[in-house]
Write a structure and sequence with these properties.
two-stranded antiparallel ribbon; single chain; mainly alpha; 146 residues
Amino acid sequence: MKKLAPRIENAQIRNAWNNRKSIARNLQNMGLTFDPNHALPIKRKGLLGAEKQTNARANIVTKPYILNQLEEEAARPEKDTKTLSSDLIEYVQHMIREHGEDYKAMARDEKNYYQDTPKQIKRKIHEYKRCHAEHHAAFISSLAAK
């Protein structure tokens, strides 16, 4: 019975994968390691206090471009894709419009259906400011114009 090839999520590694080689050999050719215990030399103390150093295997990297692509991908900044629901945005705008920065008054507002505490409302407003900074700035400037 033939073993199935491993499922590889990363496109760069999947394209460079050779199904005729073992997993350890494929990773070694790409400059990656299969066993992290053999990746770096480890200093071990012997019985008499003498330090012994285990040898790390010398790897010959035949596909260094894979390692470079992975490093470039890891260096890219991650986009913040978090957004808030339209209901929550409307709720936060109502609270700011009616009460400004008074979180205790917001907690007593009749539109506070979920009975949020002042601290929870403050957290939601800060989340709104963080996720929709331009939208919040435009909203505040429209309030100031009135």
